[in-house]
Amino acid sequence: MSAVAVVGTGYVGLTTAVCLAELGHRVTGVDIDKAKMARLRSGEPTIYEPGLDELMAKALERGRLAFTSDYGEAIPEADFVFIAVGTPRGRRGEADTVFVKQAAKSIAGAMKKTMTIVNKSTVPIGTGNIVARIVGENLRDEIPFYVVSNPEFLREGSAIYDFMHPDRLVFGSHDEPAARAVAGLYSKLDTKILITDLHTAEMIKYASNAFLATRISFINEMARICERVDADVKVVSEGMGMDRRIGPLFLDAGIGYGGSCFPKDVKALARMAETMGYHPELLDAVMEINLDQRTLVVEKLREVLGGLRDQVVGVLGLAYKPNTDDIREAPAIDVIENLLQKGADVRAYDPKAMPLLKARMNTIRYCDDPYGVATGADALLIITEWDEFRQLDLDRLKSLMRRPVIVDGRNIFDPKTMRDRGFVYRGVGRS
Ligand code: UDX
After folding, report:
1. What pLDDT sits at residue 66?
2. In a 3-state reduction of DSSP, which class is residue 30?
3. Which residue out of 19, 226, 261, 367 is catalytically annotated?
4. Do residues 191 and 325 both lie within one domain?
5. Order of strands, edge to edge, in the sheet holding 405-408?
6. pLDDT at residue 183, as a whole number
7. Residue 219 C-alpha to ligand 1 middle, in angstroms?
8. Atom 7, ligand 1: which residue's CA is nearest?
């Protein structure tokens, strides 16, 4: 059992803190937000993630988990401190490391004994060295310390599961024993371990996200070609995925990727490359294709309806993916803005994300369910593949609509079935 501090109790930090406690460590979460610390101390999770509340309650009860705003309380005791603060997108698309630097400074100020500083936040390559420099400059005494990069690969909605069942764990450091010591924290997990240097570990995170984003833009480009040659991209994906070298995941064509990671990380990697004098042609194309997918569905709708002015368009799904209320970089936002600009009358429904979008966009009408959205609509546009939408009563839906038009941005329905049911149906990349 080790004493661990986790600085930053957002999405990644809280998941990491709770899961490390579950693995048997004594963990203290540190965050400058005092109100948040009070809520967490009382056992109230500040994010929604399946399984988090139970694990958090268990760890608090066993006395393995604590929360504080005081670095002086958490750091002196710790053998390891994880930095899991946010790295928002800077003005030019670069990752902003201001919070990482602040955390490094505060950690140094509170350090009393040898410690290993572990970076979990997604940071530009070289940030580990900057952290080491800042800590070195701000230490009160000559205390030896190590810096290790241990990137996270957690998906929203399955973060706890992903933490407990990783495909691999990556540790990078100038000091191999330090990297191995951090790997030891996870020794209860049965998984592959990769030990490497700091820069390489930091790069693995970006390269992984950029590759997954590339797969999505790739299949979306195939979808565009499929539409022109009369082929079905869903079956193309299936056929490709049967090849072991390709694999079936991340080959769903649709409205493109969103969320707090892919858009930010691909952009940050591209800007980083440019700063180093390299023009990342492929990454630029990945981003361009992704954004164009959002325009293409609106174009499809315009074509079917013969114009969008004064047309009533119902949007189904606002979150960037199902099972979350997250609307960060959600395709729905661009799509709705585009529809409004073209004069459409927009109404929308999402099982979870409406409160967040309402706070940001009050020019559209929000409905209580998909049938409310369909009532009097000239078309429905599916943006998020919630299970609820797959189970809709299609006859009822059709009877409520003014025109039975559906543009399915996530290919959740079968084109032939929809046409047989009397809909004018358009998917993405389907003949
Ligand atoms: C992602 C990475 O998976 C994770 O490893 C990293 O740490 C953070 O970013 P997340 O943003 O939670 O996780 O979502 P994910 O489930 O990976 O989906 C990302 C986006 O890609 C979603 O908008 C989703 O709709 C889209 N997507 C995914 C596709 O359009 N097609 C696919 O085939 C797969």
Report:
1. 97
2. strand
3. 261
4. no
5. 365-366, 345-349, 312-316, 379-382, 405-408, 424-426
6. 98
7. 14
8. 153
Tokens standing for residue 327: 């609307």
> What average pLDDT score do residues 400-419 get?
98
pLDDT given at position 310: 97
Predicted local confidence at residue 90, as pLDDT: 85
Q: From the CA of 67, how far away is ligand 1's center (Å)?
A: 30
The enclosing domain of 265 has a CATH number of 3.40.50.720
Is there a single domain that holds both residue 182 and residue 312? no
Residues lining ligand 1, Cβ inside 6 A = 152-156, 209, 212, 216, 250-252, 254, 256-259, 261-262, 320-321
Cβ atoms within 10 Å of 374's Cβ, excluding its own? 26
> Token pair 């955390």 is at which residue?
103
Best residue among 321, 323, 385, 412 to mutate for probing ligand 1, ranked by most atoms within 8 Å of CB: 321
Q: What is the pLDDT of residues 28-40, one digit of tens each?
A: 999 999 999 999 9
- Centre of ligand 1 to C-alpha 158, Å, is 11
Domain hosting residue 66, numbered range:
3-196
Q: Which residue has its alpha carbon closest to ligand 1 atom 20?
A: 257
The half-sphere exposure of 232 on its side-chain side, counting CA atoms within 13 A, is 9
Residue 171 confidence (pLDDT) above 90? yes
- CB atoms closer than 10 angstroms to residue 151: 22
Query: What totals of helices (H) and strands (E) does the chain contain, helices first?
Result: 18, 14
- Say if residue 47's pLDDT is above 80: yes
One domain for residues 191 and 223:
no
The whole model's pTM is what?
0.95
Which DSSP category does 83 fall into?
A: E
Give the other-Cβ count within 10 Å of 237's Cβ: 24
* Residue located via tokens 């992903």: 162
> What is the atom index within ligand 1 of the atom nearest the CA of 260?
11
Mean pLDDT, residues 278-300 taken together: 98
Residue 261 known to be catalytic? yes
Q: Which of 48-52, 66-70, 279-283 shows the lowest per-residue confidence on average (mean pLDDT)? A: 48-52
Residue nearest to atom 32 of ligand 1 (CA): 250
